[in-house]
Every structure is written in C-alpha cells, then in structure tokens.
Write a structure and sequence with these properties.
Number of strands: 20
Oligomer: single chain
Largest sheet: 8 strands, mixed
Radius of gyration: 30 Å
Number of helices: 20
Helix content: 40-55%
Mean pLDDT: 83
Low-confidence stretches: 1-5, 19-30
Structural class: alpha+beta
Strand content: 15-25%
Length: 647
C-alpha cells in the first residue's frame, strides 16, 4: 500500500488477549505476562519484511505505533523484557492485541508510521505538540494586477508562495514592509474592481493604486517582478537600482519622487534589519537544534529561505525520560514534515536514528533529493549553535514555568484537601446575552499549563425540557456537566484514556456547585473533586472565593500563588466561553433567508450576496437578474425566484 492511503482495515490482527477475563486491578506481573503472551504468539506468524505494527490496549486504543525493516525481528525485541526500559515494560503490560500492515519498503513504513502517530497520538510515542500550519506570503497569479497576501493551508491558488514564516506576526510585518517597498495592492479582487478613487493604502504610501489607473500595467508588472526578485534573495541588485533612481531624481530636483525611492529603500532595510541570524552560505534550509534538560526536550526550528531568516519556533515534544536525542529527533522530523514542505537541506544538531531511511522518506515527500547534515564547523555550525542557544534558553523558560505551575498545583491540592496534586483540572463557564445563543465552555489545565487541544464547547440545546435555552445559568451548567460526564462514563468508565479530571471547577457560587454535585450523584461519580469559583466580596479580580462542599467559602490572600492560579483558570474559562458565544452569535447574524433555500450552499449564497448586496435585494431581484449572477444556473435562479415569489 502507498503511505498516503488511509490504512483503515489494512491492518491485520496477529494476536489478541482473551477478552473473557478483565485485566484491570491485577498484579503488574500478571498483566505483564499477559502482554508478553500476546506478543509471543504474534511473533510466530509475523512476516520478516518491512511494515508498521500497532500495539493496542484492552479497549482497542493504540498504545504505540512503530515501523520496522523486519517486523518479526522488531516485535521479538519486546518479548525480551529484561532488556527493555521501564516505559516499554509498561507498554507491554498494557498490550492486549497487536496489528500489523506490511509495506514494500522501510521508507513507506516510516511515512505510514508518522501519519498514524499524528492521527492517533499513542501515549508511548513521541508526541509533537502545537503542530500548526505556518503562514506564507502569496503573490497571486490569477489577476492582471497581482496582490500580496498572507496565506495558510493548501497551496492551490495560482501564484508564487514564499515561506514558511515562523509566526503570523513575522508574516504581517514582512507584508507591510513589502507594500511600502514595492507599492503592491493587498485588497480583494472584488474591492479592486469596484474602486472609483484610491483607498487609504495609497495615501499612506503602501499601494500604487492600480485600481484607478494611477499606474500602468507594465509599470505595475515591473514592481511585482522586483518583489519576486527580492523574495528570491536578489535584493542587492534591487537596492542598487532604487538608489540610482533616487539619486537621479534628486539630481533633477524632483524631490517628491526621490522621497518615494528613499522610503522604499528604508522599507527594504527594515526587512533586512530583522535578520538576526548570519546565514552566509545557506540558501534554503531548516535548522533544527535539540537540547535536553530535566527529562524534557526543546527543539528549535529556524526557517532560512533565499538566504534570509524567516523566523524560528520552539517545540516541546512529549516523550519518556529515557529517550535519546537521536530517537526524539527522528520521530519529530517524521511528524513535523508530514504536512509541510520539506527543504532541500536540513541542518541538525544531532544525528537522527535511521538517518538514511529518514532522508529517503523526506526526499519522497519533497519529490527532490533532501540532504541531512550535522555540521561540525564553519558558518553552518555557527547557525546550528545559534539555534542550540535558543533551544537552551527556551527550555530554561519552560522548566521555570513548569516548576512554578507545579508548586501552584501542589498548593491548590493542600488548600482543597485533595489526596494528590491534580494532573488534569477542568473549568466550566457559560456565556449568553439574555438567553440568546447560549454556550457552555470547558477549559483544561495541568502541570504544564493550559491544554488547549482538550478545550470543548457545548451548544446549549435545552435537553429534557429545561430552561437552559432561555439563559437559566443553573440549567445550562447542568446540561453541560451531564453531557460531558455521561459520555465519559459511557466511553471511558475506567479512565484508561486519561480523560477524567482530578478536579472540576465551576464558575459560580454555592448554587452552581450544588448543580455539579447533583449531576455527579445522578451519574454515580464519587471520585472527582469539585469546587465553585465565585467573585469575592468586593468582586475584585484576583480575589475569587473557592466554594467547597459542606465547608465555608475560602478567600485566599491576593498575593497567594494559589489565588493567582485560580484567577488565571477563571479568566481563561471566561475568555473561552465569551469567545465561543461571540463566534456563535456571529454565525447566527450571518444567517439569512438564503439558508432556507434548498440547493443554496455557502458558495452560491456568497455569490448572490456579493452581486446584490443583501438577502432583501436578492428577494426583490427578477429572474433575469438572478440568472446573470456568476455561478448561478438557470435552474438555481428559478429555484431562488420561486422561493421568494411563490404565493
């Protein structure tokens, strides 16, 4: 099979644990022996070729995804328990079944492995956190007067893409400077085609106003070509041309034109001033440096394009303490480039495991030869050392923040009388305006801070005939908690996925707390601590009351670290709830009568609104007018016309 295909049912189950006996609560040695038995039986029938294997828990959840050049030999190593580190012994102990899929080559196995790790996030694999797409700069190619814009996602629109940039801020700053340097438009094609006089961008000298013919098409094309040359690294020639043009204008005493060239030169200099890394001798490359300390790892990635630094980003992958840098780096790179363009050159601080296999896999993704180097001297080594320094400093900050967070959680456990420091805290809040568009929100926090990928929103439905939809805060909280924990009881009753909280905080006082306690009692939940968080007597931020079952409310001193933690959790829950409500309100506002017409999706709705300006004008339009809209066929036009004019 090809690695880009969804493996689906291609996996073959080789061995499984007898499901008639429950494994929970057994002595670890018994559990380990069961896992070993599964693997020993699997080894007897495993092929000796390359492929991917999945170790599954008793509930069918993937514990680990691995690739192998020789499946039989690799899985056999897991049966030699005395040679395994502690984390792999724990994995074997939890293994109830093994599934495999064979591939033609080890490279295909590696590509499939990285795809599955990102898809399933198995707990015993290295986990790449915060794996977001990176922004690019796009010079469009589907208009006579190209525009310059920030772009994320699939690169399907015609034009030239430049990047990636490490952050949206870096992209926006570069676009602003490029607008000043080359006077390119950034407005949409619709705005461009409807302008009758120049907009503000022209007056602040960030556009040449091609929309109103203040510049000819050949002159604008020359500016676009200069921008392309600059983004491709040919900036010296452009600067020399601009300087010569400025000097010539000044010599002719055309000081207004000379000032324009001066401002353009300054804008180019502004971009170059942000290149804080010496990239001499490097054209296009990603620099990846790894630093380990205190059982944690930071990977710093620098993006170098056209000899220019496009910024850097730090990653803190989750892994077990005993993993070596080479293994972490190999797993990180395979996952990192699963959905990103691969540069021709990778400069690394450490040699990754299976370097040649990784190189072949990345070359296959890039459809070009990829070179992986670990430089030891020269400019490239200095570049790697700079990335290492950034990784070391970023990890130090992360460890300091983690230590502070851990101390605050320890203090919280002590104040609330919890049996242990909470590893997962869930905070619930609601938001609505006089009952309209009510939403519930859940945020999650732990020792490493906010766990945003676990945040959840709840569109209030008014289940069971409650008044939740009318803005009854108690009914809203009851619905949210019931939906959340009814599902947890059904899908993960034994908390094998780690999806249950150690502590639940609800926004509100004694009333909201009682609602939470009633929901837990109805669902039979007895081992989750719960508390309410209410504004203190003065309703002062940072002085929240902690409301506990069968105890007097607790008001902590403002300078208490636990008070700071509670305040942060409360503010984050409120921010997320309000943002969710605002988004829902915006969607409701955008809804119109067009949404009720069968066959009118988002694309046709947009075309009609752009053409007529509003749903009211669409309703007033004649059949011929509707047929004149781009993308609206005669059949669809008749459907729209009949909808508004029948009866």
């Amino acid at each position: 099979m090809r690695p880009e295909e969804d493996p689906g049912d291609s996996f073959t189950q080789i061995a499984t644990l007898d499901g008639s006996t429950e494994a929970g609560g057994e002595h670890p040695a018994v559990s380990t022996e069961r896992g070993l038995d599964v693997l020993r039986r699997a080894v007897k029938t495993l092929p000796t070729g390359p492929g991917v294997y999945r170790m599954l828990s008793r509930t069918g959840e993937p514990l680990y995804v691995g690739k192998a050049r020789n499946l039989k030999r690799r899985v056999t190593t897991y049966t030699q328990l005395q040679r395994l580190p502690y984390r792999l012994r724990r994995m074997v102990a939890q293994t109830a079944s093994l599934e495999i899929v064979t591939t033609h080559t080890e490279v295909e196995a590696l590509l499939l492995e990285s795809n599955l790790v990102k898809r399933f996030s198995p707990p015993f694999n290295v986990q790449l956190r915060d794996d977001k797409s990176f922004p690019y700069i796009l010079l469009t190619g589907d208009h006579d007067f190209p525009r310059i814009v920030k772009h994320r996602g699939a690169q399907t629109q015609p034009g030239d893409y430049y990047g990636p940039f490490a952050s949206a801020g870096a992209t926006n700053r570069t676009i602003t400077a490029l607008e000043k340097a080359f006077l390119l438009r950034s407005c949409t094609d619709h705005v461009f085609s409807n302008r009758q006089r120049p907009c503000l961008m022209y007056h602040i000298k960030r556009c040449s106003a091609p929309c109103v013919d203040y510049i000819s098409k050949p002159e604008y094309e020359a500016l676009v070509q200069q921008a392309r040359d600059f983004l491709a690294g040919r900036d010296q020639a452009i600067q020399q041309d601009l300087k010569a043009a400025m000097d010539a204008a000044a010599a002719e005493q055309d000081f207004e034109t000379a000032a324009i060239y001066r401002d353009r030169l300054r804008a180019l200099a502004h971009i170059q001033a942000h290149q804080d890394v010496n990239v001499t001798g490097v054209d296009d490359a990603d620099v990846v440096a790894l630093h380990q300390e205190g059982g944690q790892t930071c990977l710093q990635v620098f993006f170098v394009r056209a000899g220019r630094n496009y910024g850097n980003r730090a990653y803190f992958p989750a892994h077990d303490d005993d993993m070596r840098p080479g293994a972490i780096l190999a797993a990180f790179l395979a996952q990192f480039y699963d959905n990103k363009p691969v540069p021709r050159l990778l400069l690394l601080s450490h040699g990754p495991h299976d370097r040649e296999t990784l190189r072949e896999a990345l070359s296959q993704r890039a459809d070009a030869k990829v070179d992986i180097r670990v430089p030891q001297r020269g400019d490239k080594r200095r570049l790697v050392d700079h990335a290492l320094t950034n990784a070391r400093e970023a990890l130090a900050r992360q460890l300091a923040e983690s230590s502070s967070q851990r101390k605050q959680l320890d203090g919280l456990a002590e104040r609330l009388g919890l049996p242990a420091t909470p590893e997962r805290i869930e905070v619930y809040d609601n938001s609505h305006i006089q009952g309209s568009e009510p939403y519930g929100a859940m945020i999650v926090a732990g020792p490493e801070g906010f766990m945003r990928k676990h945040y959840r929103t709840f569109k209030i439905r008014g289940e069971g005939g409650s008044d939740a939809e009318q803005g009854d805060d108690y009914a809203m909280m009851r619905e949210v908690l019931t939906r959340r924990f009814r599902r947890a009881v059904k899908e993960d009753p034994d908390n094998e996925r780690g999806s249950w909280p150690d502590l639940v905080l609800v926004d509100g006082g004694r009333g909201q707390l009682n609602v939470a306690l009633e929901v837990f009692a109805e669902l039979g939940i007895t081992d989750v601590a719960v508390a309410g968080v209410a504004k203190g007597p003065e309703r002062e931020a940072g002085r929240e009351e902690i409301v506990l079952p069968e105890r007097e409310p607790m008001l902590l001193p403002k300078d208490d670290p636990v008070s700071y933690l509670i305040s942060r959790l409360s503010e984050e829950a409120h921010r997320f709830a309000v943002g969710t409500h605002r988004s829902g309100r915006q969607k409701a506002r955008l809804r119109s009568s067009l949404d009720d017409i069968p066959g009118i999706g988002a694309k046709r709705k947009r075309a009609l609104l752009l053409h007529f300006g509003s749903a009211r004008e669409v309703a007033r339009a004649g059949l011929a007018d509707l047929e004149a809209v781009e993308g609206i066929s005669e059949t669809v036009a008749r459907r729209v016309y009949d909808f508004y004019n029948s009866g």
